[in-house]
Amino acid sequence: MLEIIREYGLMLLVGEYPHGKLGGLALTLIISIVSLAVTFPCAVLIALARTGPLRTPKAIASGFVHSVRAVPLLMLIFWAYFALPIVIGFPIDATYTLILAIVVYQAAYLGEIIAAGIEGLPKGQSEAAKALGLGYVPTTFRVILPQAIFNVIPGIVNQLTTIIKESSLGSIIAVSELSYVMLQVNSNEVTKPLQIFGILAATYFILCFALSQATNWLERRIANRRTGRVVVEAVA
Amino acid sequence: MIEFQGVSKWYGTLKVLKDISATVDKGTTIVLCGPSGSGKSTLVRTVNRLEPIQEGTITVAGADIYAKSVNVNTLRMGIGFVFQQFNLFPHLTVIDNVMLPLRRLHHQSRKEALPTALLMLERVGLADKAHALPADISGGQSQRVAIARSLILNPEVLILDEPTSALDPEMVSEVLKLLRQLSGEGMTMMCVTHEMGFAREVADRIWFLKNGELTFDAKPLVFFSPEAHPDVRGFLSAIQKNH
């Protein structure tokens, strides 16, 4: 195993970079973080449409969420990779295709998480904002979203873990992320799948386990802050 | 200042406000009381359109609050509203809570809004808590901050929906003291409360509601006298038993 790491370690980390395209773990992380960063504003819009007062955006968002949740991510990747270029008339880089598919897929899930954060706030918060004379926009952006998003930070970090794992599907369309690199190593080495995929498993595990621990830690911190508030209310 | 004319409201088929007609004069304090579910909270919530009505009219300062020319947010800016559960914004410090209306509705910068907000906090005796978070102050203090926030735009009317019901007994007096002070300064107030001592001392009139009807509207002297409506006497003796 050490032998493989010694020989392919750099490739595992950055792919062919600096002689070729960036790949490996670095690409996995970049794809994941970029996907989450692009997903986030889309998810906020979906959450606002889902929880907002207007019927048409609500129906569109809910249709989107339900459709996306009813299909596998792999199918979205196939669509983005094979069908989309025909529709728009020019090819897209496989990495962008993967990011696009993940963003569409995750927007539905993250949107639901943020919507739950909005709906989990006490009704008194939006009522108090209304009573002050604040309209929809300041109420949403100054009162509701800051609280709702803060409360769902663990859920958002958790989605990052999911995205990291989902990015491995990129290997199917030859995006040279971590899994794809390890597949290549495997075809070079042929006789050592146990070691090679052991390293792959360990890498994902360390990454995702660390993130899920971070999620737990965040959850506890947020719960403590909430309890702080609850205690004051109880004393009151 | 505020006039209810034939106001009725239904939740589905349940009629929760029944043909209420009454007037709140400028500078007076009205205390609303009655058994739970009598519609007193619903009635005060209709004044700033937190609860829509289906029949009748409500005018504030001579203007029909449902007139097309009335912008609901402008209406609400002129009516301070204080909730039982304070409803401070927990992610904002005390001073930011109080400044929020100035900043977002009067579009003042932080620097412009700060002196006004600090002055208001001084008025409720909490200038030293300006930079605390709502989670770090007591219930009584929270309610005083909520009152400061509701007064920051100088509303003509202050409405309080059971402002002391969520408070521990030892914190009730600090809030009532503030309300007494505001009433003394000539603020027009409508206050839903079970604090009968406060009502007797501060109210100009007391409204008694039962099953969505305004059954008795009297000065405190009459309200607490044996001539009061039998429902009122029943209610008062029930309250006394609990204290």
Structure in words:
The complex is a heterodimer of chains A (236) and B (243). Chain A is mainly alpha-helical and 236 residues long. Chain A has one domain: MetI-like fold (Orthogonal Bundle), CATH 1.10.3720.10. Helices cover 82% and strands 0% of the residues of chain A. Chain A has ten helices and no strands. The termini of chain A are far apart. Chain B has one domain (2-227): Rossmann fold. In chain B, the strands form two sheets. In chain B, strands 6-7-8-3-9-10 form a six-stranded mixed sheet, with helices on both faces. Chain B has a four-stranded antiparallel sheet with strand order 2-1-4-5, with helices on one face. Chain B has 243 residues and is α/β, with parallel strands linked by helices. Chain B has helices at residues 40-47, 72-77, 94-105, 110-123, 139-151, 169-184, 196-202, 220-223, 230-242; strands at residues 2-11, 14-24, 29-33, 55-60, 63-64, 79-82, 157-161, 188-192, 205-210, 213-218. Chain B is built from nine helices and ten strands. The mean pLDDT of chain B is 93. In chain B, 38% of the residues lie in helices and 25% in strands. In chain B, helix 3 (94-105) runs parallel beside helix 5. Chains A and B meet through helix 6, helix 7 and helix 10 of A and helix 2, helix 3 and helix 5 of B.
Helix/strand layout:
The complex is a heterodimer of chains A (236) and B (243).
Chain A: H1 2-14, H2 24-51, H3 55-69, H4 73-88, H5 94-119, H6 123-132, H7 136-151, H8 153-166, H9 178-189, H10 193-235
Helix pairs in contact in A: 1-2, 1-9, 2-3, 2-5, 2-8, 2-9, 3-5, 4-5, 5-7, 5-8, 6-7, 8-10, 9-10
Chain B: E1 2-11, E2 14-24, E3 29-33, H1 40-47, E4 55-60, E5 63-64, H2 72-77, E6 79-82, H3 94-105, H4 110-123, H5 139-151, E7 157-161, H6 169-184, E8 188-192, H7 196-202, E9 205-210, E10 213-218, H8 220-223, H9 230-242
Parallel strand pairs in B: 3-8, 3-9, 6-7, 7-8
Antiparallel strand pairs in B: 1-2, 1-4, 4-5, 9-10
